[in-house]
């Protein structure tokens, strides 16, 4: 994978790449949006806890496909309030702490999810050769 953050545009606001190129022949994995639900259906109350669980769920999906967070090329994340951005970003950065080359990333504020107690949803695209 090649990451792109051209010097001719503003650098990324956080730890992500402006673009990622996937080579021909790579395997692609696209996840559904993951909520912060634990296997027992419990839900952390705060956005950071929910985001951390989203990433734990994604890690399990990646592992089943023989991939790791290092194979993620794009993160799409959704939070229900600007106040949840910092918690989400802390969980994302912790999840990417061991990843040398960060993926592309988008964070969007939405009006809500299927349940009012859901604060964060995360989906990823991963690629491996």
UniProtKB/TrEMBL annotation:
Xref: Pfam families: Ribonuc_L-PSP
Top-level taxon: Bacteria
Cleavable signal peptide: none
Protein name per the record: Enamine deaminase RidA
Species lineage: Bacteria, Pseudomonadati, Pseudomonadota, Alphaproteobacteria, Rhodobacterales
């Amino acid at each position: 994978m090649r990451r792109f953050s051209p010097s001719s545009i503003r650098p990324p606001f956080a730890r992500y790449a402006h673009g990622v190129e996937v080579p021909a022949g790579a395997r692609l994995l696209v996840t559904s949006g993951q909520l912060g639900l634990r296997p027992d259906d419990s839900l952390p109350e705060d956005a950071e806890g929910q985001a951390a669980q989203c990433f734990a769920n994604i890690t399990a999906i990646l592992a089943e496909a023989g991939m790791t967070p290092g194979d993620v090329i794009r993160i799409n994340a959704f939070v229900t309030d600007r106040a949840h951005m910092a918690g989400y970003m802390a969980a994302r950065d912790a999840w990417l702490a061991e990843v040398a080359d960060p993926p592309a990333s988008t964070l969007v504020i939405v009006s809500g999810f299927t349940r009012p107690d859901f604060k964060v949803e995360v989906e990823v695209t991963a690629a491996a050769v």
